[in-house]
Each structure stands twice: as C-alpha cells, then as structure tokens.
C-alpha cells in the first residue's frame, strides 16, 4: 500500500471506529491509539525519506498517481519532500497532544474526537497532495470541521466566532478556487493537455499577464488562512472561543496550510507573478508582524494574547516567503514548525490554567508560580521560545528569516526587514509582562491556593510539544539541511525568472 495514503486511511479508520464506540473511555482509547499510529507513521516516514533522499534527488519522493476524474485530468496524486515530511510530523505530534489535553472532555466526546480527526485527515491529505484539485478538496475538509468544533464545544460568543471564521475562510476558498482554475486553464500554455499536477504545471511557461492576474488571488486565498493582515480578524476570535485542543490544532497545524500553499502553489507555479506582486504583500506582511505584536501587548485575555502573537509570528512566515531566496524560505519553514509546537504548547497551558482558575484574565491571576510550579515553569519556557531566545526553536527560525531578508541590497527590502525585526522587542515586552503579572508576586485569590496538580495526560501532552521545541533549538542543523535540500528546485524556478 502507498506509504503516504496511510496518512488519510488511518485517521478515516479511526473515525469509523469512533462511530461504533460506546462511552467516553472507548472514545479516548480509540483516539489515542489512532493518533499514536499516526505519529509512528510520521516518524517512520522521516527515516524512510532520509534514506531515500540520499540516493534519489527527485523533487518529490514516494509519488503515486491514480486517475480520479479522467475528463478533467484530475488525479489522486501524492508525494513528499523535506518540507511536507516535517509538517506531517508536526501535525501528528500536535494531534496526539490535543487528544491527551482533551482527555477529560465529557460533552459529546465521541463527536468531538470524530470532528478533531476529520480535521486532521484534511491536513494530512493537504500536505501529501501534488494535484491542485485534490489539494483543494483536502483543504476544505480541514476547514469545515472548525465550525462545528467551535460552535458546539466552544465558549463565550462561540456562534459568532464560528460563523466569522467559516465565512472568512470560505470567502478565501472562493478566491483560491478562481486562482486554482486560472492556473489549470493555463497549464497547457506550451501546447500540452490541461493538468492539475503541480510538478507538470511547474514545467509550463505560463504567460506573464496570466501570472500577474492569478498570483494575488492564489496568494490571498491561502494567506488568509495564514492570518495575512488585514484578513486576520477571524483568528483571534476563533482562538478565544475554541476549546483547548481545537485552538492547538487551529494555530499549531491548520494555519500552517496557508504558508505551505503560498510556497507550494502560488510562488512555485506563478514565479513571475510573485516577483511582480512581492513588494505589495511584503508591506501587508510587515504590518501584520508589527500589528500582531502590539495587539498582543494590549490584550489581557491569555488566549487573545497568544492569538495576536500567532498573527505576528505567521506574518514572519509570509514575509520570509515573499523574499524569494533560499535562506529566508528555510527560515519560513523552520518558523512554521517552531510556531506550531510553541503555540500549541501555549494553548495547552492556557487551557490547564483556565480549567483550574476559571479565568484567562491575567489581571485576576498572580503568584501562580507558587501554586502551579510545573505548569508555570513550562509557560516560562514557552515564553522564552516565543521571544526567540537562543537554545529554543524560535531563535534559529527567526535568524534565518532576517538574515535571508537582509540579503536583498535594495533599500525597500532592508527597511521592511528592520521594521519586522523590531517586533522582537515588542514580543519580549508582552511575554515578560504576562509572566510578571500572572506568575510572580503574591497569590491574588485565596481560592487559587489549593489548585490541582498537572495530571499524567496533561504532562504527556506537554512533553510531546516541549521536547521537539527544545530539540529544534539545540540541534537544528539536520532539520535545516533537510529542508534546504528540498528548497533548491523551488528556488531555482524563481531564480530562472529573475
């Protein structure tokens, strides 16, 4: 059986098993076992990929192609490179951590875990697809369950947040669909047959005017999911109302599909359009980086702080991709991974704090380091990773981004880079502010003096995210080398048009 298709089949089988499960305990066990298998497959794929890459220098490895709709030349085509392998590993870790963090969910648990795993199925399918149409289908499969997960299991103004998220992402999908069809109907510019296959389209010389028209549509269609300013407003409200595990998958995995789509589709297939429009979207991305940092500084709700922080960090991903050079692109991939582990860990910890104190308002918290030492220390570590401290994943990612961005000799790029770099200072301010108010000093509420300790399933979820976050910071070279190797054919396609 195709090693990549298992990433779709196993979650689907897990969902089917959940449909026939009885009670909370069975739902937990099935979800945990299914997610463990997915993590095992991702780790196995990593080692198999590294072994195969040593002798096979194809753009994509383990490619499979099955005709789906012959009349439109739509295929179920799959393949991976170093970038997609790392994102599959990120997804499997965050999904398993989310299952452990949701261990105590008792409101429609079977339906909750089913929705969670359907979302994961869409994400896995998206990262392994090399057919535009198939990729778009999986994109929609990943987005749709978010409405149910927030609308049913969320808190606060959950109906409003779920509807806002769905409408904005569906609107982006409509724009994206126009871009995808624009690419498809120009995929025979050299006289061949129309195709949705990414590798085949990349060999076609699509006219400049076509690229100029469809690049912004394709870019915006994906970048809205990556919280591009000013289309980011769905994200903070969605985060604030979503249950903990959904926030983890939302920020840790789902939003990475935006940057991946920009890289894999918009820039790779429409390089002339990317060169033409890069200045405009660099401005929007730089604004997003700064705006997100200052937005986090203004908030007092822990979830909103982390949500605006995500807008800032993911703005760096889009900013780096638009720089169109190998170093910045490598930084963008590393930033996607770093932010995935870091923000999922943040949301897991926020869920634990809220579950014990019943508040996310930092002004009502204080002295938690005395009463919740383990959770508080992990929060400090996550905060240090977020502000880019050496030794953590954020440092190596941001260094690659800013070094790559500053390689441009034109003043516009360097000014934009300096502006974006300044967000690091603001990030340090809001992170240290939260740590000081929430963790230090005296306990403000007597009810907080006897809070429950972290449970085994919470600790397991934390460690699943903490270990790779530190591992990336301590030993980043093997990961960086793997992604850099995969970026070469993509950057070469851009360089050929410069």
UniProtKB/TrEMBL annotation:
Descriptive protein name: NADH dehydrogenase subunit M
Family, per entry: Belongs to the complex I subunit 4 family.
Asked if the keyword Transmembrane belongs to this entry, the reply reads yes
Instruction: Enumerate the transmembrane spans.
Output: 6-24, 29-50, 82-103, 112-130, 136-153, 165-185, 213-232, 253-271, 277-297, 304-324, 336-355, 367-392, 412-435, 456-479
Superkingdom of origin: Bacteria
Transmembrane in keyword set: yes
Molecular functions (GO terms): NADH dehydrogenase (ubiquinone) activity; NADH dehydrogenase activity; ubiquinone binding
Biological process (GO) annotations? ATP synthesis coupled electron transport; electron transport coupled proton transport
């Amino acid at each position: 059986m195709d090693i990549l298709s298992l990433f779709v089949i196993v979650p689907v089988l897990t969902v089917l098993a959940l449909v026939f499960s009885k009670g909370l305990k069975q739902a937990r066990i099935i979800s945990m076992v299914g997610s463990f298998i997915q993590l095992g497959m991702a780790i196995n794929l990593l080692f198999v990929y590294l072994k195969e890459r040593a002798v096979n220098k194809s753009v994509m490895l383990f490619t499979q192609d099955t005709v789906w709709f012959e009349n439109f030349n739509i295929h179920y085509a799959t393949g991976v490179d170093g970038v997609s392998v790392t994102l599959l590993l990120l997804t499997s870790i965050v999904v398993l951590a989310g299952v452990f963090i949701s261990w105590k969910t008792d409101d429609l648990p079977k339906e909750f875990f089913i929705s969670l795993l359907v979302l994961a199925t869409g994400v896995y399918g998206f990262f392994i697809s090399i057919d535009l149409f198939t990729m778009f289908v999986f994109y929609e499969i990943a987005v749709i369950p978010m409405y149910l997960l927030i609308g049913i299991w969320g808190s606060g103004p959950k109906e409003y947040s779920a509807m806002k998220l769905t409408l904005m992402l569906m609107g982006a999908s409509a724009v994206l669909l126009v871009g995808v069809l624009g690419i498809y109907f120009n995929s025979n510019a050299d006289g061949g047959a129309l195709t949705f296959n990414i590798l085949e389209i990349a060999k076609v010389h699509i006219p400049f005017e076509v690229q100029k028209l469809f690049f912004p549509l394709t870019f915006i269609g994906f970048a809205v999911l990556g919280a591009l300013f000013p289309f980011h407003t769905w994200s903070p409200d969605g985060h604030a109302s979503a249950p903990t595990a959904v926030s983890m998958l939302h920020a840790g995995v789902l939003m990475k599909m935006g940057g991946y789509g920009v890289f894999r589709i918009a820039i790779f297939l429409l390089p002339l359009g990317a060169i033409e429009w890069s200045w405009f979207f660099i401005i929007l991305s730089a604004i997003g980086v700064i705006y997100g940092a200052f937005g986090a500084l203004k908030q007092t709700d822990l979830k909103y702080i982390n949500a605006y922080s995500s807008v800032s960090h993911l703005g760096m991903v889009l900013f780096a991709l638009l720089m169109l050079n190998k170093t910045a692109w490598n930084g963008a991939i590393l930033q996607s991974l770093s932010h995935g582990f870091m923000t999922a860990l943040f949301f897991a910890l926020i869920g634990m704090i809220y579950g014990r104190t019943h508040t996310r308002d930092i002004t009502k918290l204080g002295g938690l380091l005395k009463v919740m030492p383990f959770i508080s220390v992990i929060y400090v570590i996550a905060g240090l990773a977020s502000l880019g401290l050496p030794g953590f994943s954020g440092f190596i990612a941001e260094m690659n981004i800013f070094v790559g961005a500053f390689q441009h000799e034109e003043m516009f790029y360097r000014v934009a880079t300096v502006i974006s770099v300044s967000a690091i200072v603001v990030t340090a301010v809001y992170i240290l502010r939260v740590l000081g108010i929430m963790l230090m000093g005296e306990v403000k509420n007597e009810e907080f003096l006897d809070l429950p300790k972290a449970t085994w399933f919470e600790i397991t979820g934390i460690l699943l995210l903490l270990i790779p976050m530190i591992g990336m910071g301590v030993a980043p070279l093997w990961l960086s080398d793997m992604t850099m190797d995969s970026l070469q054919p993509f950057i070469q396609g851009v360089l050929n048009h410069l």
